[in-house]
Design brief:
With 496 residues, this protein is of the alpha+beta class. Among the domains are: 8-144 and 151-196, no CATH class; 406-488, no CATH class. 43% of the residues lie in helices and 10% in strands. A 4-stranded mixed sheet has the order 5-4-3-6, with helices on both faces. A 3-stranded antiparallel sheet has the order 9-10-11, with no helix packed on it. It has a two-stranded antiparallel sheet with strand order 1-2. α9 (191-205) runs antiparallel to α10 (210-224). The longest helix is centred in the first third of the chain and has 31 residues, at 42-72.
Length: 496
């Protein structure tokens, strides 16, 4: 009797079933799903959510494999190319989108990953290696180690590499980003270089929000394509477009597609205006206030911080105020804020002219030529890595963090240091981890950038922060996670 490999989806479903029943209240389990959820304690319901994510991951990985297999099947009539086209679909992504009734982008991501991890057959019917074997392996959950101390804070950037905390599987969306970026560089790279690059990208993508995976994938692709970085910069500049047209609703749609060096000023300028307005105390007289700007519609100022205007509306306001100033309007409500554009590079790129630089808030790297152009016509702050810098640890003699320290914290944390938070440095303030009034020094190991929301979460919900090897780790309270497993925060840096 032959044994078959366990179905990963069945294993994930069994795991979810065990967690669900373990989370039920032993005295009042409840008769239906809604009642059962209501009776679960806080930690238990969060465990259920995490396990549900594992089931979703198993579904998406299995879907990618199924779609990859379908894409390789010939048409039954042998006349329409593939089974996908014979079934009436333009490509596998459209097939997933139509049959699952999901967005085209979602179907395209699953189909792209499926093509990357599926083994094709050669002319003689033999199985060949899939295009991205490292991605295929990274999608599978790692086996849990026999023993691990989850209460201790990891002391390096990759806690799983030493056999401790098991590495989280790569998400299908993260895999799609890595595959897409590396395919762009695959035309000029050998298969060995491509495989090595995929390993590097995957290594940095574990336990990482998707927007960080996107940035890392672009950096890895740029390193593969260093000789082609300058032509790509020129192509991006030539592709810049800005369109304006009025919608049937009466609103005007402004759409701009900008190269990284152009987008840097737009993003930095808007974020600076928004950040300044967010941090400024805002008191409006009830008779003249815009009720839409107040959460309760009363026109009264918020009792605890600025009003909760959505970020996209704040950007629209900032954009409008900028052009009011350009038009010479003396009644504009917002003063223009000095804009800081931070570009980071290394000594080798400056000396050799080869390599790439990155701009805060922009995922796409730029080449040395774009860096020189920006330096020629703008007041920039260059962040030269691995080089000499000013003294950034001031001990306890100074209470407020200096501008140099804040820039160093922005380089380390990338904005709000809370994992997954996308607020840029202009939306944050530097805070002491150990309060200055309690003897906490004003240095980098005791400083962290936090947006107002996550600053309140730290204090109100009693989270703990520690800095290990320049990496901030957030330790949840026991009522959120009984094991108090540390969660990595800050900016993810690409190893050399």
């Amino acid at each position: 009797m032959t044994s078959t490999a366990p179905n990963p989806l069945a294993a994930a479903a069994a795991g979810f079933d065990a967690v669900w029943h373990g989370a039920l209240d032993t005295i009042r389990p409840g008769s239906g799903v809604a009642e059962q959820l209501e009776n679960m304690n806080d930690e238990a319901v969060l465990r259920v959510l995490d396990e549900l994510g594992a089931v979703q991951h198993a579904v998406e990985v299995l879907a990618a494999r199924v779609v990859g297999a379908i894409a390789l099947r010939p048409s039954p009539s042998r006349r329409d190319g593939t089974l996908v086209r014979a079934a009436g679909y333009a490509n596998p992504g459209v097939m997933v989108s139509e049959r699952w009734r999901v967005a085209r982008a979602r179907g395209a991501a699953i189909a792209e990953v499926g093509a990357a991890i599926t083994q094709p057959r050669g002319l003689l019917g033999e199985l060949e290696e899939c295009p991205f074997p490292a991605v295929a392996a990274a999608l599978e959950p790692a086996a849990s180690p026999e023993s691990s101390n989850t209460d201790a804070v990891p002391d390096d950037t990759h806690p799983s590499s030493d056999g401790g905390t098991p590495r989280a599987p790569l998400s299908v969306d993260g895999a799609a980003v890595i595959v897409r970026e590396l395919r762009n560089a695959g035309r000029i790279c050998s298969r060995g270089e491509l495989e090595a690059a995929s390993v590097i990208a995957i290594e940095h993508a574990a336990h990482t929000p998707l927007h960080d995976v996107t940035r890392i994938a672009k950096l890895v692709r740029t390193r593969l394509d260093q000789d082609g970085r300058e032509p790509r910069d020129e192509l991006l500049r030539r592709a810049e477009r800005c369109t304006i047209h009025e919608l049937p609703t009466g609103m005007t749609l402004l759409r701009a597609e900008l190269a990284p060096e152009s987008a840097a000023f737009i993003r930095a300028g808007l974020d600076a205006l928004i950040g300044a307005a967010t941090r400024k105390p805002h008191f409006t007289h009830p008779d003249t206030a815009d009720p839409a700007d107040q959460p309760d519609g009363s026109g009264q100022p918020m009792p605890d911080g600025p009003s909760l205007i959505p970020t996209d509306r704040r950007r629209a306001i900032a954009l409008t105020e900028t052009f009011r100033h350009l038009a010479g309007c003396s009644s504009a409500a917002t003063e223009l804020t000095p804009v800081t554009v931070i570009i980071r590079t290394d000594h080798d790129t400056l000396e050799t002219g080869l390599g790439a630089a990155t701009i805060d808030g922009i995922d796409e790297p730029i080449g040395p030529g774009a860096l020189r152009r920006l330096a020629a016509d703008a007041n920039l702050i260059p962040m030269i890595l691995n080089g000499p810098s000013q003294v950034l640890d001031l001990g306890t003699s100074t209470r407020l963090f200096t501008r140099g320290q804040k820039l160093a914290l922005a380089e380390r944390d990338g904005g709000c240091a809370w994992t997954g938070c996308t607020h840029p440095p202009s939306f944050t303030e530097a805070h002491h981890i150990r309060w200055w009034s309690q003897g906490g020094p004003t240095n980098l190991d005791n400083g962290i950038l936090l947006c107002p929301f996550h600053h309140h979460r730290i204090h109100d919900d009693h989270w703990t922060i520690t800095i290990q090897n320049g990496i901030p780790w957030f330790i949840p309270p026991s009522h959120i996670d009984r094991h108090q497993t540390p969660i990595r925060g800050g900016r993810l840096h690409l190893a050399a």
